[in-house]
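Hey team,

Filing this mostly as a record. A colleague (T.K.) asked me to run one chain through the structure pipeline before their review meeting, and I want the input and output archived in the tracker in case anyone asks later how it was produced. No errors, nothing strange. Just documentation.

Input sequence:
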Amino acid sequence: MSHSTTAPTPARAGKGGGLSWPVALCWMAVALDGFDLVVLGAVIPVLSESGDLGFTDASLTTASTLGLVGVGLGAVTIGPLTDRFGRRRSLIISVAVFSVLTLAIPLAENVTQFTTLRFLAGLGLGACLPTALAYISEHAPTERAGAATTRMMTGYHVGAVLTALLALWVIDAWGWEAMFVIGGLAGLAVVPLMMARLPESTTYLAARSGTTQEQAHRARPSDVVRGRYLRISIGLWVASFMGLLLVYGLNTWLPKIMGEAGYSISAGTSLLLVLNLGAVIGLLVAGSISDARGNKVTVLTWFALAAVFLALLSIKMESRALVYLAVLLTGIFVFSAQVLVYAFVSKLYPARMRGTALGMSAGVGRVGAIVGPSLGGALVTAGIAYPWGFYAFAIAALLAVAALATVPDRPAEE
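Output structure:
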């Protein structure tokens, strides 16, 4: 790749006004993840009722689970590739793969083809997030890296909300297939913008040219569990697992659990929107606090407060305002706590292995994304989701606190 096309100066956060294309494009890539979180949930009721392609509830569950497995594998696989071939190329290819395969889903003729395409699209999607995280952590000034990471992740929730709103009229008007067409076309629209406006990370270029001492040798995947990095990686992986367990578990089961607590169905759905509103608020403030106070103390505080507010939700509240406030605060701390883990990963590993470390953390977290809804479903099936669902989620947050307490607050010496 020629230096003329990677323009090192623009790859740092702009200090003047105007649009920062790297920030905007990474935000768009993360918004695709938000689309994918919601889109299958939006079309599952239609596929279940109509039996299109031969779907049953069991095969829909399989398709959903294998899609998440693909996302996890994509996250783990992309790390070494982005450290070797660059953030820019990896992100463009990942978005293109996800978009093309998503666009192909309406062409599926049976359950097997649909599920296979969801799995393969998941590989591309899973690669997007850790690559965008590695890029944005290197693009932003060091003193604002936490804020840059959390603000980029607002794209995830904006994408999810917009997809949910879109589904309300698109599916009735044009069928479930239209949702995947829209998602695929949106992703493909981003690709040429990335090719034109996304420069390579200057940190990656410096690593490849050997201009910094810490980049003197090429990273291997095993480096993230070698020597003093083993303790760091285990602590961060446990926290990432617990964080996404909470994010996906709550997004899947909060309305049902609140219904079992005696709240109305409409209240449960409204509380889900409040939960995600809290997520956006948390993401807007958490990064700045992390930059000012330090990564470790902030992420520990965030998970601890998440545990407190999750436990409080187990108490039946007569005041509607108090219920909404408790759910809002839960959303503020639960969702941004998970993103602060990614910011912490970026802080603790050198650039030569940062992509690998972020990919592994995101990949392990995706296992939690599968376990969270399964855990909630098991508690619902057993008839004890309220209050024990909130206790179980609070315990998961405390386990994240315990894991992160073992992680040093400064990068390991090379």
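Quick notes for T.K.: The CA atoms of residues 227 and 266 lie 52 Å apart. Confidence is low (pLDDT under 50) at residues 1-18, 211-216.
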